[in-house]
Amino acid sequence: MTTVLLADDQDLVRSGLRLVLELADIEVVGEAVDGARAVTLATRLRPDVILMDVRMPTMDGIEATRRIVGAGLPSRVLILTTFDLDEHVFDALAAGASAFLLKDVGREQLVSAVRTVAAGEALFAPTVLRRLVRHYVARPPARATPGLAELTPRELEVLRLIGRGMSNPEIAAELVVSMPTVKTHVRHILQKLDLRDRVQAVVTAYEAGLVDR
Predict the structure, then answer these.
(1) In the CATH scheme, what architecture does the domain 3-134 have?
(2) Is the pTM of the predicted complex or chain greater than 0.70?
(3) How far apart are CA 63 and CA 70, in angstroms?
(4) 156-171 pLDDT, tens per residue?
(5) pLDDT of 9-55, one tens digit each?
(6) 27-32 and 3-7: which strand pairing?
(7) Which residues contact 26 (CB under 8 A, 6 or more apart)?
(8) For FRET with 7, which of 34, 77, 170, 189 sits at 20 to 30 Å CA-CA?
(9) Does 1.10.10.10 match the CATH number of domain 141-207?
């Protein structure tokens, strides 16, 4: 069963999140009212996913994320916030967050996001993805991507779908292939293009013209 730690300073928000997740058979193993407590509980409980608010007293969610990731904990952080300001997005990514969603996300989307992140994928709200693309694509490319020519036609197709913000299950459904096959393609893409993560793959897909800007 997927385990989750909730980090939000509003009791009502935490109660609502707990209800949604537990109805979907996702176990909430702890709750934190600030970032400092989130770090402490993450260290002790080691949940699969931490739903992290940005604005909290004592220590904000960005710093808490930075400390959790820096400590090498296995937990993956999903930033869930009311705000989608650019600096929050970029700071969260720099801190090591695996996902960034807005609190207006629907129940089914939230549950799906938690499971997606727990499975090791990155995930971003569509508005956040657009901001990332505008931010990175607007800059001159730091380097060429000669490895693009080494990708097979299927790998290019997978890269295009990654650029559209699709998760592995969505790519598998789109291409009518198995999840292990998609994961293999993604791994090969990152290796051949010397990319650190899925976010860089999204940027590369746009820079290569595989996705309309």
Answers:
(1) 3-Layer(aba) Sandwich (3.40)
(2) yes
(3) 10
(4) 999 999 888 788 888 9
(5) 999 999 999 999 999 999 999 999 999 999 999 999 999 999 999 99
(6) parallel
(7) 1, 2, 3, 4, 111, 114, 115
(8) 170
(9) yes
